[in-house]
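Q: Convert this sequence to structure tokens.
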Amino acid sequence: QSEVITQNITIKDVLGPTLILFTDNNPVLEAGDIYVEPGFYAFDNVDGDLTTDVNYTENFESNQTGIHVLNYTVDDSAKNVTSKPRSVTVVDTTPPVLSLNGSPNVVLEFGDSYVDSNASWVDIVDGSGQVSPNEVLDLNTIGVQLLTFTKTDDNNNTSNVVTRSVTILDTTIPTLVLNGNALIIHEAGQP
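A:
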């Protein structure tokens, strides 16, 4: 007589999906730009193609320079998870944009006081602000003086140059003051 032996075999999926990140030949991103995903592929030995199930940062954009890690994760129906990182270097090579506040031409009377309205700058990484002229205006010199403005951001990108022409004039009629009497009578021949 033979005996029947029953054996239960459980097949478990213990292997995570294969996740392949396509090579990015230019893993450098200018600050403020959107990263163009080079692509990826995910496949599981049980579930098949899982490419559409990969979770990752879409439309990555950063205004912070340095190395940023984008994580890609996919799991199969057995909850086996595979993750891979991709490093993207964000750089800042874009200079700030500078615009002059106020008029590019100013006319002053000699002796007037003057406070410059400066120039405003905007930078994708450093934000925005104001900058004073590179030169000091000499209010005691008649003529035309040129004030220039520039901004260098924290990554050594120098802005465009804007200028203001300041003309100092002396149009005030001089005042004469007579010392002594207004009428002097002098006898001819007398010293």
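The chain has a mean pLDDT of 92.
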